[in-house]
Design brief:
- Monomer.
- This protein has 10 helices and 17 strands.
- It has one domain: tRNA-splicing ligase RtcB (Alpha-Beta Complex), CATH 3.90.1860.10.
- The longest helix has 35 residues.
- The chain has 411 residues and is α+β, with helices and mostly antiparallel strands.
- A 7-stranded antiparallel beta sheet has the order 10-6-8-7-17-15-14.
- The radius of gyration is 21 Å and the shape is globular.
Length: 411
């Protein structure tokens, strides 16, 4: 079925799927995964698919899943609260040094990033964590510690996770820090990260609990990663508490990183400047209670951003393409949501098979960033066309700023 700006998949035995994907390819596996989600008995109204939609673990990345009376931990995933933060500065392009290498090096030194290989017998410090966390980390952790201790009293296995020493760190994969220029030549700082090791531990623990509950009650599912926690059960209440805390950790993680990013830039650019002239900090892997179509429902955004009327959000492209600061239009059919990026067009394995370092060098020309075999899976061609993605969601958001990176730090 076609509507003015989106298509509707009618799902036998399930709710409809409304898809803002015109002009953007969608793999059949992703459609089948969306259908499985839509058949869950507690889906409210319909599932919304954003233009960056693609196959994911547990549920489809780029999907908005409204539920009544139940929550799917694997739909939220293990990078709980993953999202973006961006801040406009008073710096302009002419204030940046001709050689951007020292700027990138300063950022890499100030913010732990990446992950040490987990080889047999490895006991050293993960390079992606702090050895001795600096003061901003200590200050932020004091705001999180008491609630985390209470969560650990209920779930002791979480106590030994890498939490405090991951606060204010980037991670790996598609997480990044960028220095960008907007359409007027102003400098922006932008970063992408989530709840790091502790969010992974929380997500993994409750995903397994949900699967155990399904087995205990002999509940058959189209996909075991759609195991859910019914409202009113202990596991549900514990998960809501833990996932809420992990989302606060993720938001604070980005704020601390931004502080350290700004401080590192000041060591290279000595001209005084202000930041947060405009600022956005938004999740794109999370769950929260919202009111839609007259009911209070749980909305899980798996790779999607809240886009209420007037609300600012961030839609990044890739290492070599534009990113966008957007303002939501509050479209009720999308549950006030938009895409969280361009979306992958192929798997990391396929990208490494198909492209070379020379391809990566050409695709990131003009950007001070890593250009080696370990980041080929993040090559721009592994992602969908960001321009097509933006066109497909023109009734969900309007573009406020267009950003182009000049420095990119990858985990």
């Amino acid at each position: 079925m076609k509507h003015e700006t989106y298509d509707v998949l009618t799902i036998e035995g399930g709710r409809p799927v409304k898809m803002w994907t015109r002009g953007v390819p969608v793999e059949e596996e992703a459609k089948r995964q969306l259908a499985n989600i839509a058949r869950m008995p507690f889906i409210y109204k319909h599932v919304a698919a954003m233009p960056d939609v693609h196959l994911g673990k547990g549920s489809t990345i780029g999907s908005v899943i409204p539920t009544l009376g139940a929550i799917i931990p694997a739909a939220v995933g293990v990078d709980i609260g993953c999202g973006m933060m961006a801040a406009k500065t008073t710096l302009t392009a002419k204030d940046l040094p001709d050689n951007l290498g020292p700027l990138r090096s300063a950022i890499e030194k100030a913010v732990p990033h990446g992950m040490s290989p987990k080889t047999r017998g490895f006991k050293g410090r993960d390079k992606g964590s702090w050895d001795r966390p600096p003061q901003p980390v200590n200050a932020a952790w004091t705001q999180l510690k008491d609630e985390f201790d209470a969560i650990c009293n209920k779930t002791p296995k979480l106590r030994n996770t890498n939490n405090y020493k991951h606060l204010g760190t980037l991670g790996s994969g598609n997480h990044f820090i960028e220095i960008c220029l907007d359409e007027q030549g102003f400098v922006w700082f932008m970063l992408h990260s989530g709840s790091r090791g502790v969010g992974n531990a929380i997500g993994t623990h409750f995903i397994e609990l949900a699967k155990q509950d399904m087995r205990t009650h002999f509940i058959n599912l189209p996909d075991q990663d759609l195991a859910y926690l019914p409202e009113g059960t202990r596991h549900y209440d514990d998960y809501v508490e833990a996932v809420g805390w992990a989302q606060r950790f993720a938001r604070m993680n980005r704020e601390v990183m931004m502080q350290n990013l700004i401080a590192s830039v000041r060591t290279v650019i000595t001209k005084p400047f202000e930041t947060h002239v405009e600022a956005v900090n938004c999740h794109h892997n999370y769950v929260q209670k919202e009111r839609h179509f007259g009911k209070d429902v749980l909305v899980t955004r798996k790779g999607a951003v809240s886009a209420r009327a007037g609300e600012l959000g961030i839609i990044p492209g890739s290492m070599g393409t534009s990113s966008y600061i957007v303002r939501g239009k509050g479209n009720p059919e999308s549950f006030h949501s938009c895409s969280h990026g361009a979306g992958r067009a192929m798997s990391r394995t396929e990208a490494k098979r198909r492209f070379t370092v020379d391809d990566q060098v050409r695709a990131t020309a003009g950007v001070e960033c890593r250009k080696d075999a370990d980041v080929i899976d993040e090559i721009p061609m592994a992602y969908k066309d960001i321009d097509a993605v933006m066109e497909a969601q023109r009734d969900l958001v309007e573009v406020v700023h267009t950003l182009k990176q000049v420095v990119c730090v990858k985990g």
